[in-house]
């Protein structure tokens, strides 16, 4: 799909949804789902409708609920929603999440499905909407998952995130101690290549 081609897709999607032709919109979209720009086209659709309808009552004329139901037909939905939210004014979040569901619930779905990078994006949203203690706990849970998958780059990203939101440093210290304990538990006598890599990551984390 060329860049020019993807720019018209959200217009077609919206036209069909406004005409109460949701199934036709899904069928049409399936033909383009394999292309790299498809997710971006969905995001443009959501962002455009959200900005136009924000502040209005979700009346019969509103199509945001139909857009969300349409998005839910595709694997891109959770990524599209969080990407749109992060690029949208915080003032519009209440309107968005009143339709798509609570961001904490979407975060939990990402955790359950193993979509850790998407879950990390939801953490950024949650960090502005809930107390630090709760955000810290959610980050630690995600860090556990990342360690289980040996995703050391994500571990480093999460520790950097903790360092930016935790002025006390307590949760950050807890995270580093947990990582160190996991390394020692995996192979206390002779670290393998993964452990050596993790040692390096932990050292880099201390230098953040």
Automatic annotation (TrEMBL):
The keyword Oxidoreductase belongs to this UniProt entry's keyword annotation: no
Compartments where located: Membrane
Biological processes, Gene Ontology terms: intracellular protein transport; retrograde transport, endosome to Golgi
Source superkingdom: Eukaryota
Gene Ontology CC: cytosol; Golgi membrane; Ric1-Rgp1 guanyl-nucleotide exchange factor complex
Protein keywords: Membrane
Major localization class: membrane
Keyword match Membrane: yes
Residue stretches making up the RIC1 C-terminal alpha solenoid region domain: 10-178
InterPro entries noted in UniProt: Ric1, RIC1_C
Protein's name according to its UniProt entry: RIC1 C-terminal alpha solenoid region domain-containing protein
Organism: Rhizopus stolonifer (Rhizopus nigricans)
């Amino acid at each position: 799909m060329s860049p020019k081609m993807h720019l018209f897709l959200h217009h077609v999607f919206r036209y069909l949804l406004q005409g109460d032709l949701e199934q036709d919109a899904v069928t049409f979209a399936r033909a383009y789902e394999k292309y790299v720009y498809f997710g971006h086209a969905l995001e443009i659709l959501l962002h455009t409708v959200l900005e136009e309808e924000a502040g209005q009552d979700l009346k019969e004329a509103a199509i945001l609920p139909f857009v969300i139901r349409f998005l839910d037909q595709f694997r891109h939905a959770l990524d599209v929603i969080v990407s749109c939210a992060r690029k949208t004014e915080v003032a519009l979040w209440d309107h968005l999440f009143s339709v798509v569901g609570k961001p904490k619930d979407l975060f939990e779905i990402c955790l359950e499905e193993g979509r850790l990078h998407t879950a990390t994006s939801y953490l950024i949203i949650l960090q502005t909407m809930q107390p630090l203690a709760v955000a810290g706990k959610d980050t630690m849970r995600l860090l556990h998952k990342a360690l289980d998958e040996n995703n050391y780059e994500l571990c480093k990203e999460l520790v950097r995130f903790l360092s930016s939101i935790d002025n006390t440093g307590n949760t950050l210290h807890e995270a580093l101690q947990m990582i160190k304990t996991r390394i020692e538990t995996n192979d206390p006598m002779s670290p393998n290549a993964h452990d050596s890599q993790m040692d390096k990551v932990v050292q880099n984390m201390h230098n953040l």
